[in-house]
Write a structure and sequence with these properties.
The complex is a heterodimer of chains A (203) and B (216). Chain A contains eleven helices and four strands. Chain A is of the alpha/beta class and 203 residues long. Chain A has a single domain, classed as Nitrile Hydratase, Chain A, CATH 3.90.330. In chain A, helix 3 packs across helix 4. The N terminus of chain A is likely disordered. With 216 residues, chain B is an alpha+beta fold. Chain B folds into two domains: 88 residues, Orthogonal Bundle (Cyclin A, domain 1); 95 residues, SH3 type barrels. In chain B, 29% of the residues lie in helices and 17% in strands. Chain B contains eight helices and six strands. In chain B, strands 1, 2, 3, 4, 5 and 6 form a six-stranded antiparallel beta sheet that branches. The two termini of chain B are 24 Å apart. The mean pLDDT of chain B is 96. The chains are: A alpha/beta (203), B alpha+beta (216). Chains A and B meet through helix 1, helix 2, helix 7, helix 8 and helix 9 of A and helix 1, helix 2, helix 4, helix 5 and helix 6 of B. Strand 3 of chain A pairs parallel with strand 5 of chain B, so a sheet runs across the interface.
């Protein structure tokens, strides 16, 4: 299985396998031997989440919403359909809603009960999104969470937190940065970050 | 259930550790666990899957990483359903003479399974509440699966949006069918949830099913 190398410590190819890696390997071998799983299906699923979905998808949605008023209107009316126009559909993106940041409202998305996250547009969530500190604090101290990400908000900006308790998934549309009038959609998409679309950062 | 998974508003969970984007899996085994869960013949409904994780011993839930929990879940489901035995799991080898199955999720079906549009919306009778109505989240403590977090129970909010009828997790997780009910986005002021120290303008919205709500 090929892996892209990112700018972080990818320790799984240099070091001996951990106990849990061996446990997973044993389970996978057993299920393949018994004909219960297709190894090519496992490879295809991993490939999908490593290469086919990720926050660059969501960035395209945001950049199009900034650039194309008609698209923004469709996104407001039916975000699931508007996002599907770009080919982003499926598991954990069944019912999408786009929430727009404004000069007076900042949106922040969390799932306090598990780790619900819009996979087709943002990919799989970062570890912190799935972990207790974020899930516990985002609803009671969102401004403190934002500060941890280096994001300070004026007191007169409303912080609007969305706790994803059902099968509806929220995508934050950040404010378009000033001075970007001449940029193409592709150039705009490069400005959009994953954390901006979760709401822990402003662009 | 009033489990440790219901963590909204808890203190003392430690610092948040930001990470760069572009990392789907931090270890190769995590990707295999993700794939094994999706390809396993034990693949059940999403609500039952969440409840399986919630029922882990609380100390394990807090100690284990996300994908350690997913691994424990798929192992348990495979054992419970009789697809594998404890001896096979321990050895990683099929018992002599074990029958050979046909994969539940062949490679050719993966793309459609991951990307096909799906809807949890169902036909239901007319909604009891309209946008702008004041509602109270019921005080209830069901021992089974629920998506009504403790931090909103008994609190008053305002209906912000109607999502239509949605599959009801409290019943669906327990094999009682989809039992759809209206789903509402409900806006609670931060001060209603957390007291007068909370910022006046801030708010929290949750998606809550009609059986969770009463008129306020």
């Amino acid at each position: 299985m090929a892996h892209d190398h990112h700018d972080h410590d990818h320790d799984h190819e240099q070091e001996p396998p951990s106990d849990i890696a061996l446990r997973v390997k044993a389970l996978e071998s057993l299920l393949i031997e018994k004909g219960l799983v297709d190894p090519a299906a496992l490879d295809a699923i991993v490939d999908h989440y490593e290469h086919k979905v990720g926050p660059r998808n969501g960035a395209r949605v945001v950049a199009k919403a900034w650039s194309d008023q008609a698209y923004l209107e469709r996104l407001r009316a039916d975000a699931t359909a508007a996002i599907a126009e770009l080919g982003f559909t499926g598991r954990q993106g069944e019912h999408m809603i786009a929430v727009e940041n404004t000069p007076t409202t900042h949106n922040l998305v969390v799932c306090t009960l598990c780790s619900c996250y819009p996979w087709p547009v943002l990919g799989l969530p970062p570890v912190w999104y799935k972990s207790a500190p974020y899930r516990a604090r985002a609803v009671i101290d969102p401004r403190g969470v934002l500060a941890d990400f280096g994001t300070e908000l004026p007191d007169d900006v409303e912080v609007s937190v969305w706790d994803s308790t059902a099968e509806v998934r929220y995508l934050v549309i950040p404010e378009r940065p000033a001075g970007t009038e001449g940029l193409s959609e592709a150039e705009l998409a490069d400005l959009v970050t994953r954390d901006g679309m979760i709401g822990t950062a402003r662009l | 259930m009033n489990g440790v998974h219901d963590m909204g508003g808890m203190h003392g969970m430690g610092p948040i550790t930001p990470e760069p984007e572009g990392i789907a899996f931090h270890h190769a085994w995590e990707g295999r666990v993700h794939a094994l869960n999706l390809a396993s013949p034990t693949r059940g409904n999403i609500d039952a899957g969440r409840h399986k994780i919630e029922r882990m011993p609380p100390a394990d839930y807090l100690r284990m990483s996300y994908y350690e929990k997913w691994l424990a879940r798929v192992e348990q489901l495979l054992l419970e359903a009789g697809y594998i035995t404890a001896d096979e799991l321990a050895s990683g080898r099929a018992a002599p003479g074990a029958p050979k199955s046909t994969p539940f999720r062949p490679a050719a079906s993966v793309h459609a399974a991951l990307t096909s549009p799906y809807s949890y919306v169902r036909d239901v009778p007319p909604a009891a509440f309209a946008v702008g109505d004041r509602v109270r989240a019921r005080v209830m403590n069901p021992p089974g699966h629920t998506r009504l977090p403790r931090y909103v129970r008994g609190r008053v909010g305002v209906i912000d949006r109607l999502h239509g009828g949605h599959v009801f997790p409290d019943r669906h997780a327990h094999g009682h069918g989809e039992d759809p009910h209206h789903l509402y986005c409900v806006r609670f002021e931060a001060r209603e949830l957390w007291g007068p120290e909370a910022p006046a303008r801030d708010s929290v919205r949750l998606d809550l099913w009609e059986p969770y709500l009463e008129r306020a």
